[in-house]
Design goal:
Layout: E1 10-11, H1 13-25, E2 31-38, E3 44-51, E4 59-63, E5 66-70, H2 72-78, E6 82-88, E7 91-97, E8 103-104, E9 110-112
């Protein structure tokens, strides 16, 4: 039976396509791991890595054919967020629209709560 609850973190279709592309390049990778770590110019920073291991207590979110893995501590800071992927002339990156952040640096890589 499928769960009807809303995922605690969502991803855009653009982000899902990029995650699926990255996963297709290495069959061992199971998900894009999104983490919140201390540091950065605003106090916390986001980390994105393709991961080949999913822990028992990870929140696994599957949308649009892609999979995210988020550890419980990071999930506390990311709940309600949406992950997107942006391609610009100066580069491309995953971004996070985080409603819990009270401030962020200009590049969007770190935030404060």
């Amino acid at each position: 039976m499928r769960s009807t609850r809303e995922p605690p973190v969502s991803m855009t279709e653009t982000a899902a396509k990029r995650i699926a592309f990255l996963m297709s390049k290495d069959a061992a990778k199971q998900a894009l791991r999104v983490e919140v770590k201390s540091g950065g110019c605003s106090g916390f920073q986001y980390s994105f890595n393709m991961d080949d291991k999913i822990a028992k207590d990870d929140e696994v979110i599957e949308q649009h054919g892609a999979r995210l893995a988020i550890d419980p501590l990071s999930l506390m800071y990311l709940a309600g967020s949406q992950i997107d992927f942006e391609e610009k002339m100066i580069g491309s990156q995953f971004t996070i629209g985080n409603p819990n952040a009270t401030a962020s640096c200009s590049c969007g890589a770190s935030f404060a709560i």
